[in-house]
Design brief:
By secondary structure, the chain is an alpha+beta fold. It has 2 helices and 5 strands; from the N terminus they run ββαβαββ.
């Protein structure tokens, strides 16, 4: 059985993966299907999500870009839907600031609230506002 080589180029990062082909040639029969546990599927999905995010970050961001953590005061913590709207408003204003300075805003964001106080993580490209 031959193997397949996949190469991903993202920014300054090159990731090479080698694995066996999943395609079958004419006349070959597939083996009986094994029962895959839900835990194995979850682990595989987590690995794929990490790889996808890593490639996205390496392709679009560089050293010096900003990681922002936006939090709320304890007495002013909103519901998740309101927090999402607040984040969208913040990104709109940030995008307007970047456009005003002829820059393109690149960002990745996530909101956490299930295991801790609600807060937002943003990764944005840097530009010097003072100029």
């Amino acid at each position: 059985m031959s193997y397949c080589k996949k190469t991903y180029v993202a920014g300054k990062t090159i990731i090479v993966e080698k694995g066996y082909r999943t395609e079958y040639q004419a006349g070959m029969k597939r083996k009986n299907r094994k029962n895959v546990s839900k835990e194995a599927v979850k682990n595989n999905n987590q690995k794929q999500a990490i790889k996808k995010l890593t490639l996205l970050m390496n392709a679009n961001f560089k050293i010096g870009d900003l990681h922002l953590v936006l939090t709320y005061r304890k007495e002013e913590r909103p519901l998740p839907e309101v927090a999402r709207k607040n984040l969208e408003k913040f990104i709109r204003k940030l995008r307007a600031l970047y456009r005003k300075n002829d820059k393109e805003l690149k960002y990745i964001h996530t909101t956490e609230y299930k295991n801790s106080a609600i807060h937002h993580h943003l990764l944005i490209n840097y530009f010097d506002i003072a100029k």
